[in-house]
Amino acid sequence: MNTRKREQIDGLFNIIFKSTGLITIALLAGIFIMLFSNSILFFLKVSPIDFFTGSQWDPETHYSIVPLLVSSLLVALGSMIIAVPLGIFTAAYLSELAPKKVQMFLKPIIEMLAAIPSVAIGFLGIVLVGPGLSYVFGIQNGLNALNGSILLAVMALPTIVTISEDAINAVPQSHREASLALGANKWETLFKVTIPAALPGLIAAVMLGLGRALGETMTVLMATGNAAAMPKGFLDSVRTITATIAIEMGEVPYQTTHYFALFAIAALLFLITLAVNFAGEFFANRLRKFHV
Length: 292
Description:
By secondary structure, the protein is mainly α. It has helices spanning 3-43, 48-53, 66-97, 100-112, 118-137, 145-169, 173-181, 186-197, 199-215, 218-223, 241-248, 257-291, and strands at 57-58, 62-63.
């Protein structure tokens, strides 16, 4: 292949890749414009103060995002309390302590969790986790925030484990050798050297896992009880922002206040998820710069 033809092929692929990147940006900008233009129409009819300070979501009379936002954050926080230590310790075990055969067995199983449909996990929440919570805590209904947190923790685990393992593996071997040479054992090296050195990547894993939990719809729709009221704890039924959009968007009359309200809560969820993803990307870049 002569030089001229190679340059033509390189130029063609350069145009293709640049075009796909621009299309992606255009799609993201289109979603942003659609959400916020409809949100503006909502705030022309409903006071932003009532929207952000009220305590009730009732499409007939009140449009307050507070109970939905608190429910979403409660479920996401609960999932991170479960998934973060479990995910990071699993990644540390796979990276630092597990024999090769155990790694080859466990890693595909963990990665396969990401392939399980969310509706299947939600179904397990209804028939297995919910009744178990009812029995353990002596409550009538196990479809609550704790149920959703447990299920979302399972769904976030593959992301947290995979990225955490990459971050731990990226720590130079010289750090471990220096720690062992100074008399530290494997456990001291892991907790005082390896994990602190991998911290930017671990934070990125947590942020991306949190984004996964915040954006999930079907699982929380099936397993949290869908009560659009201010929750008092993890044993209360809740309704998240994503579940509200999924339930109400299919039946809402077109271009009504209720219709525009769903765009407003979707826009806020978009901003929250975007902020979480940007934070994860920031810490991931810190990790790359640290190891360059």
